[in-house]
Amino acid sequence: MSPDAASDDLARDAFAVLLPAFASLDCHAVALPLLECGCTSILIGETRAEYLARRMSVERLAAETEAVFSGAIARLREACPDLIVAVDQEPIGIRRLQGLMPFLAEGEDIRELDSATIEHRAAEMARAARRLAVTAFLAPILDVVTGRNAWLSGRTLGASPEDVGRIGAAYIRGARAAGIAAVAKHFPGFNELARDPAMYDVSLETPRETLIADALPFRAAIAAGVSGIMAGPAPVAALDPDNAACTSRAVIDLLKGEFGFEGLVVTDDLDAPATLRGRPVAEVAVTALAAGADLLLVVGGPHLHEVADGILDAVAAGTLPQERLRDAARRVRAFAAGPGAVSRNGRC
């Protein structure tokens, strides 16, 4: 391989590890150049108002039909046939595909459903998502919330690790059986937070012993074959008081070591104040990769070209090992070609 070809491949790797999030399907002007540069994934997200309301807007529900949604994704796949198309489709809480598929639980307590019913309904949801060309659910939420936590209010599966683990594992098995990759979140679990980490720089102060006990649902998810795990957006003081969980080597080493997870490690939103902690997003992206994260969730926009440049600069400076970047990109592409892939042909 010539030096120029190797350099081009490395540049594509820097884009491949980015997961740009867009609040609208009308994102092609920004998303297509990213895909052409090597990006292999996209999060079709929601607005801040929808995020807070835990439901999609009346305007979105009226405008987004199955044909509109799948048509928008088809345009993106022209640039990247093996495209990871992710959505927040939580069992309860934020359900980006509201109006386009049935809910897993509506008007009933999900904890009252047996595992077989949850698995069956999750598979139905996944089949509907496949018709829309979606390949991954950023779900289920496995945090066991036992205190104040406005960030996860209305989104969690209960206060019992056993209940959350059972429901989460059934959801994962159902989605996986129907060809959708599940990404469980938010490791190691945030039982309480004084403020929303998407708005404030806040840390989790829970003792390590409680963290490990409450993380039982992640063990159940791994046993169920979960494809990816998202680490959380705020520091976990008992493990690493300086870095958010998704940018912390200590947290990611715990996930890969003591928990034995070998799948894709995904960050939460790197743009969150509790993750940035006053640093530029490119610097935080390098920190996350060096810590062992593979796929970096970031707000979509033209600035991501600068983030990719920052990653390449870190490789050139020796602060990010080249092999770590190449390994992360390989793992992202393998995820794209896994159970959630629509196409296995083409090179993005």
From TrEMBL:
Any Pfam family the entry gives: Glyco_hydro_3
SUPFAM superfamilies: (Trans)glycosidases
Alphabetized Gene3D superfamilies for the sequence: Glycoside hydrolase, family 3, N-terminal domain
Any one GO molecular function term: hydrolase activity, hydrolyzing O-glycosyl compounds
Keyword annotations of the record: Glycosidase, Hydrolase
Domain of life assignment: Bacteria
A Gene Ontology BP annotation from the UniProt entry: peptidoglycan turnover
Annotated Glycoside hydrolase family 3 N-terminal domain residues: 83-333
UniProt record similarity statement: Belongs to the glycosyl hydrolase 3 family.
Protein known as: Beta-hexosaminidase
